[in-house]
Amino acid sequence: CEIVGIMLLPLMFPGADWEAHLVQPLAFNIIVSLVIILVAHHRDLAEQDRQNALEQRIAARTQELTSSNEKLKNQMSERQLVEKALANERNLLRTLIDNLPDYIVVKDRQNRFVLVNKAWASHNTDSEQTDQVVGKTDHDYFPDELANEFLTDERQLLQSGQALIDKEVIN
Fold it and tell me: CA-CA distance, 39 to 14, in Å (whole number)?
């Protein structure tokens, strides 16, 4: 707006003899040129300030993201170590369970098999494949009378929290 106003001075003051005096139009053109240069320089400085501020924000955010990334990498490494240790312990426990001569059985609240050991599987099924038993119930392997007795014992165990010790079932 300021530049347009200065450029319009000859039009705003038509009585002034702008063409008659060479110095006045030359001074006017110099002043207008200087104002244009100053405005452009001011705009360049403002743009540089905006770019510098943006670069600083980008650098700060990049640092934050790099730090977060390092933390995540450390957490992932730690988690992998924990998962490996857990898998080793699980394998050790499974080896122990499968090699015990006693029957080991784990069931869920609906009395479905979650885990059995090889001794139980080889005695009650046609193979030692323990994973084929998972999800089934006693009714899949025993006569109804015996399966119902197991179910009653298991419900009593869950209600009382007391283990049934030295109970022998002849199958």
Answer: 27
CA-to-CA distance for 140 and 125, rounded, in angstroms? 10
Q: pLDDT 10s per residue in the chain (171 long)?
A: 445 555 555 565 566 555 555 456 667 778 878 888 888 999 999 999 999 999 999 999 999 999 999 999 999 999 999 999 999 999 999 999 999 999 999 999 899 999 999 999 999 988 878 889 999 999 999 999 999 999 998 888 888 888 777 777 666
